[in-house]
């Protein structure tokens, strides 16, 4: 390895860090004799950055040179910043050596666009192909597909990567065109479709022949930048829901806009990235994926934006006091799941254990239910009755926000300074 | 008060269960062999640990419990918490005394406690899988010192054996002074003669492989570059990556 590898690593990690998708779950891959590593099937985070994001993969760019000029991107061609390019073998060696020391779960490879999408994509494919075929690497590989890359390259990538992603970045086409003139939604949705086809075909093949090659077995993901343009949360979450209806789409990530190019007048002026909003979107996304919520229950014409002060589940519950209180000893699982303060795990525990006897407030607490919230929305006999109906949603809201007000209020005021040109 | 003394091994505990059922007396307290009796003792019994007795109890348990619940009992044992043996004993008794399966009856305090404690141990087990850092020694062995709160080293060996099948490694619990060595074929339990190999959680530099320092440096640089400064949140950071593990983590040294 050459000596300037340290410099390159710094530059190319720095350039890749704003891409948020980094999880490693979704496939399991066994070690093959003479090979390195395996893939666990569940998300393994090997470290956490000081900003609290999980490091599970070596998230890196092959190069941060780029012919495009997207306004929200630090690597846009009009920025004057140090540029670097890894050789295929350098990147392969780095991945293997980091993996052997248990620093990482695998590789997340992205790249700036050099020359044209296919030229770039081809070099990226070489990295993942070498890892799999020459080094017999069985760790996790997530590769970003370059918008506009042709089908055969996407297809080849899918043979070696566990997950492929193409970032939408901006949910409304017109806004995307404003910030990234060289891109459009077609160049994003087209490769998404190739990936979907690849996944479905391989699934079908493997039902016939067990050893048919796997294609991106962990499916695909995408990301949207939040707060760089004026889309409301309803637009964002509707886009996510539509994406989740596609068979291979596994995760939509939300990346609170970090103003890296503050000189660009097309971008909003922010004091701080919209962290609370980003967090609320993840919570809402979670509700859609694990709590059987429909998007219009969370946001709709009447409530187009998520409440920054309280989480979306509590927010829904306060808008629907008529659904409560829920009797934890009798109600259906789906209904228990809707109680603020009760998570998927505790909802399951409640349902399996209540066959043995009556569940009390004390049991709930020990099962991990957040009683501070849940108490207004449940009954279980000996609990004092002060349900949301009796003491009013406004009052519950006030009680629950008062205690946590200091930290979230601070964020909220910072967020209000968001203004669009 | 009925007191059972036993050798504070898991096998010993299972033997105690066996004896209790055989004698039809059940302990109010479980003590180590050397431990001193409390004041009012009605009956005092010393368990002789026997493999076959322990195995019979374990087999009977396996018949009545899911493998998940059996694992939970092992996890609770490895928590090494003061009262964990009493808890396991109580749990096993409830299993044997009930006609129907009790493992989902979380309304019962003992059963819920077993589950909650097993979950804590499991959490640390997962953290070890994530946070173990290997350092390559000159003789090509990858070395990782740890000191978990619970004794979860035995629970992570399979993971590393499957994952790093083509490299030799040692994972060593410094707090409990034992470890496991994988020689490309099998994993053996071992104890090092000296702990001067890793002053302060790091492999002695003289023993490191030639490239090792470079990769540590690269990893540290990567860790630093990947932080987004506008979003730094030290409280969250410590919550996710508890300070007590930092000593062994290359990126935090
Ligand atoms: S194409 Fe990608 S790397 Fe290039 S400027 Fe746009 S977002 Fe940045």
Automatic annotation (TrEMBL), chain A:
Domain of life: Bacteria
Cofactor: [4Fe-4S] cluster
Gene3D superfamilies recorded: Aldolase class I
Any GO molecular function: catalytic activity
Alphabetical UniProt keywords: Iron, Iron-sulfur, Metal-binding, S-adenosyl-L-methionine
Family annotation (InterPro entries): Aldolase_TIM (IPR013785), DNA_rSAM_put (IPR023874), Endo/Exo/Phosphatase_dom_1 (IPR051675), rSAM (IPR007197), rSAM_sf (IPR058240), RuvA_2-like (IPR010994)
Record carries keyword S-adenosyl-L-methionine: yes
The protein, known as: Putative DNA modification/repair radical SAM protein
Organism per entry: Microbacter margulisiae
TrEMBL record, chain B:
One Pfam family, short name: DUF4130
Protein name from the UniProt record: Putative DNA metabolism protein
Species: Microbacter margulisiae
Domain DUF4130 residues, every copy: 83-251
Source species, domain of life: Bacteria
């Amino acid at each position: 390895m050459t000596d300037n590898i340290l410099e390159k690593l710094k530059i190319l990690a720095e350039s890749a860090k704003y891409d948020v998708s980094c999880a490693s779950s979704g496939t399991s891959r066994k070690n093959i004799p003479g090979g390195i590593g395996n893939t666990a099937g569940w998300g393994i985070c090997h470290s956490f950055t000081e900003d609290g994001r999980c490091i599970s993969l070596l998230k890196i760019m092959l190069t941060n040179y780029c012919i495009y000029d997207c306004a929200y991107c630090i690597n846009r061609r009009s920025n004057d910043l140090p540029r670097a390019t890894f050789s295929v073998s350098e990147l392969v060696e780095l991945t293997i050596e980091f993996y052997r020391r248990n620093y990482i779960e695998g590789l997340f490879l992205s790249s700036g666009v050099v020359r044209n999408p296919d030229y770039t994509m081809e070099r990226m494919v070489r990295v993942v192909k070498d890892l799999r075929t020459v080094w017999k690497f069985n760790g996790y590989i997530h590769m970003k597909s370059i918008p506009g890359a042709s089908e055969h390259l996407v297809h080849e990538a899918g043979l070696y990567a566990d997950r492929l992603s193409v970032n939408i970045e901006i949910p409304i086409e017109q806004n995307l065109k404003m910030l990234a003139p060289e891109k459009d939604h077609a160049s994003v949705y087209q490769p998404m479709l190739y990936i979907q086809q690849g996944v479905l075909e391989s699934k079908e093949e493997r039902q016939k022949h067990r050893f048919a090659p796997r294609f991106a077995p962990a499916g695909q993901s995408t990301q949207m930048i939040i707060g760089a343009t004026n889309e409301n949360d309803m637009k964002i979450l509707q886009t996510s829901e539509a994406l989740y209806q596609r068979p291979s789409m596994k995760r939509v990530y939300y990346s609170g806009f970090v103003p890296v190019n503050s000189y660009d007048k097309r971008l909003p002026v922010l004091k701080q990235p919209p962290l609370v909003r980003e967090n609320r979107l993840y919570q809402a996304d979670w509700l859609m994926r694990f709590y059987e919520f429909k998007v219009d229950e969370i946001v709709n014409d009447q409530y187009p934006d998520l409440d920054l002060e309280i989480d979306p589940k509590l927010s829904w519950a306060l808008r629907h006091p008529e659904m409560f209180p829920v009797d934890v000893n009798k109600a259906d699982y789906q209904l228990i799941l809707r109680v603020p303060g009760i998570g998927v795990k505790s909802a399951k525990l409640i349902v399996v254990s209540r066959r043995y006897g009556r569940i009390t407030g004390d049991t709930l607490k020990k099962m991990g239910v957040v009683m501070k919230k849940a108490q207004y929305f449940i009954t279980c006999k000996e609990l004092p009755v002060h349900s949301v109906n009796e003491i009013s949603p406004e009052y519950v809201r006030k009680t629950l926000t008062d205690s946590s007000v200091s930290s979230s209020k601070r964020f909220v005021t910072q967020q209000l300074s968001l203004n669009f040109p | 008060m009925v007191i059972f003394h036993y050798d504070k091994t898991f096998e010993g505990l299972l033997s105690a269960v066996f004896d209790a059922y055989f004698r039809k007396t059940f302990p109010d307290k479980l003590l180590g062999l050397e431990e001193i009796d409390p004041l009012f003792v009605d009956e005092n019994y010393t368990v002789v640990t026997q493999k076959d007795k322990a195995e019979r109890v374990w087999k009977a348990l396996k018949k009545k419990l899911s493998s998940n619940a059996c694992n939970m009992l092992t996890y609770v044992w490895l928590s090494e918490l003061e009262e964990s043996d009493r808890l396991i004993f109580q749990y096993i008794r409830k299993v044997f005394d009930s006609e129907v399966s009790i493992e989902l009856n979380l309304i019962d305090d003992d059963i819920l406690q077993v589950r909650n404690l097993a979950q804590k141990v499991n959490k640390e087990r997962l953290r070890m899988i994530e946070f173990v850092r290997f350092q390559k020694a000159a003789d090509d062995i990858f070395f990782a010192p740890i000191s978990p709160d619970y004794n979860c080293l035995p629970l992570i060996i399979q993971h590393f054996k499957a994952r790093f099948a083509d490299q030799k490694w040692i994972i060593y619990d410094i707090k409990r002074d034992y470890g496991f060595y994988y020689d490309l074929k099998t994993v053996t339990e071992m104890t090092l003669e000296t702990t001067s190999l890793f002053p302060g959680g790091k492999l002695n530099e003289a023993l490191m492989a030639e490239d090792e320092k470079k990769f540590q440096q690269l990893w540290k640089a990567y860790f630093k570059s990947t932080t987004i400064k506008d979003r730094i949140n030290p409280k969250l950071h410590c919550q996710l990556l508890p300070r007590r593990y930092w000593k062994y983590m290359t990126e935090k040294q």
